[in-house]
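Structure, all two chains, one model.
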Amino acid sequence: MPTFQILKDKMPNGVYFLSVRGFLDAHTFEELEKSITELFDAGHYRLVIDLSKLDYISSAGAGVFIGAIGTAQENDGNIVIVKPSPNVKEVFDLLGLTQIFTFAETPEAALQQFA
Amino acid sequence: MVREQISITSDTRYLSVIREFISRMIRQSALAAEEENKIILAVDEAVTNIIEHGYDSVANGPIEIEVEHDPTLFRIMVRDSGRRFNPETISAPDIMEHVRLGKKKGLGIFLMRQIMDEVRYSFREGVKNEVTLTKYIKRRPQ
């Protein structure tokens, strides 16, 4: 099994879904950054990002979300995070990111945030 | 005191090797299981800083990671021979400012300080840089 994986899917209302899995660190963050940049370049600024299967995140990984949320919101979009794993939630808490991002329990609940 | 060390070169592909090493050492130690993710993160951040700032992401610089632990503490020493990097001058980040400016870097030292009880740097000119990360182990009630 690969140590890092991104699955991409289209949801209703022009929302895009990313499931980020495995270990997001200084070695893998560029892959996620590239996926998000490609969506932004295509005009898709409404993202649901599922972190329930992300086992680990370092500040390099968190930096991708910090860099992206401003761009999404400036373009009438947003990033809604689905159910971060306990390890990932811990790092979001340490960095104070829980006050910045919107969270949802399921992808469907996240989609409601864009209704 | 139990001691063990590993050596890598300055390539981010080895971060996973370091995380596995630290995880194994934590599980042998008296540290509580809930500390594991955070301490692995602190070491990952220290090594990532060395790779990016000490060696400018050039992949052949030597990095040594030594762990020692006893019932009272868990300590990690990370040594490198790269450019001296003094994080003492770096203040705590304003996360809202990071978001406003889309700034992605500069959070690693903050995390190391948040997680560990002590973060100390020492420099010996032309020889080695060393960062020492210490977590004291609190005695659990019987």
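The first helix of chain A runs from residue 29 to 41.
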